[in-house]
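Field reference: sequence -> structure
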Amino acid sequence: MLGAVIGDIVGSVYEWNNVKTKDFGPLFHGKAFYTDDTICTMAVAEALATGRHAGEALKDWGRRYYDNGGWGGMFSRWLLQDSLAPYDSFGNGAAMRVSPAGLLAGSADEALTLAKSVTEVTHNHPEGIKGAQATALAIFLARQGASAHDIKRAITERFDYDLERTVDDIRPSYRFDASCQQTVPQALVCALTASGFEDAVRNAISIGGDSDTVAAIAGGLAEARFGIPEDLAAAGWSYLPQDMRRTLTLLYEKAGVVLAVP
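Structure field:
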């Protein structure tokens, strides 16, 4: 989803240079760029929109944009291998790429099923699948108009994540952690306590840590809750090459959702 892509782009310059504040200047830094988070999201979008095997799509997109860099060590090695076997990861990559499942799902059960299907091809550890399913389900529920309170309750009951903290509670002690366990709850809080799309992304950047991934997860949920302001959608779109634009267009068409970009 474009919201996840925007979160990734905004967070790209802060992953190794955390700012720990929401007041970090213009949303899009002059040196911002899309990272592996966007590339993997495109792969999942293509797989779900066309029926392609998610592992094949991830390898195709990952190899196509391999020089983009930013790959996790295990995922990078997996990309360059011929085998499609998963590697038992619980990394936060499971959740940062899964937003298309929340967009396309027609029911809560389908959100869980789609999330599992595109995640277990690499991140087949229970915590990896859990992080992806929690993210996809939250997005689906937001699309159905569920309140932040009801989304928190549903995710907490099913996945036992602590979503009762505030961004101000999380920020002081939060540090870089690439696991789903220490990324997904924090990112969901950033979106569920926000007043709008941009506020959610700024929340995500402000806690620090793996900024592009936290903001990608928060951005996908924030889009489902609030939509994306037209100027921010156009700005995010402008960073993307044609193959990514085509893939996003196909995804939104399949979901029956209008993609308001130039």
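Note: The domain at 2-255 is CATH 1.10.4080.10 (ADP-ribosylglycohydrolase fold).
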